[in-house]
Write a structure and sequence with these properties.
The protein has one domain. By secondary structure, it is mostly helical. It is built from 3 helices and no strands. This is HTH cro/C1-type domain-containing protein. It comes from Tumebacillus flagellatus.
Length: 62
């Protein structure tokens, strides 16, 4: 998001996830097993639409 200058608010609006959820998922210390795949897919899909580039879950949460 930082690379493309996309604000969290924009991702929240495009993805339909709450700002609290997005903030938690952006936390680098969040264990991978705490990430709900369907939520991650919503965020990744929103980022792909916003950037016009392919985005994979693994780009953020490996």
């Amino acid at each position: 998001m930082d690379t493309h200058g996309i604000k969290q608010k924009t991702v929240v609006e495009e993805s339909g996830v709450s700002s609290v959820t997005l903030t938690k998922l952006c936390n680098v210390d969040l264990p991978k097993n705490k990430i709900i795949r369907s939520t991650a897919v919503k965020i990744v899909d929103a980022l792909a639409r916003l950037t016009g580039e392919p985005v994979k879950i693994e780009d953020f949460w490996a």
